[in-house]
Amino acid sequence: MQTPKILQINVSKAKEVLWNGQSVFTGIFKTPVEGRVRARRLNLDGDEQADLTVHGGSDKAVYAYPIEQYEHWSQQYPSRDLEWGIFGENLTVCGFDETNTCIGDRLQIGDAIFQVTQPRMPCYKQGIRFGDPGIIKLFYKSYKWGFYLSVIQEGTIETGDEIIRLEKNDSENVRLLDVSKCLVDKEPDPELVARVLNSKLAEQMKYQLQSRFS
User: Residue 107 half-sphere exposure, CB side, CA atoms within 13 Å?
Assistant: First the structure.
């Protein structure tokens, strides 16, 4: 297994694109950057979220996507060259994915410290990035959502930096995959739903889950 690390850092400013005849502002067209990048409370330097009602904020400051999932998507889109960053992630990473990463885990990268807050729900802008609205349903059902990080301690990070798990939230042991299952599965385990709702899951996603079963 590869040492957990950042393979690529991706940022973008929000820009206007035309989609289905309408003008849309989006920050999903990430491009790689070199050198050290500062992680701040709300984002990485050079990055911007367009719609702050569903993206951004302290619980969704940085989005990470595992390289381990790219093989799955290469099979779904065999004719495409899926360059790193195509999922809109700030950090293309290896060693951490939805099956071995828990809500509340604390990670050190460079001299910054992050906390895992929630998986990332797909949105229609992923369809814009792929040029295929069908990716949204595929992404949703795949459970391969990647994950959001809050910035606990601001600092600088760089491609190649090792990702060190400082604290694993074993007391709750709610994996990212568990959260996705509660949102996607038709009849999720009630005990699992209760554990997820009692975890350090970001409040906005807790509300989504509570709304589903209210």
Answer: 28
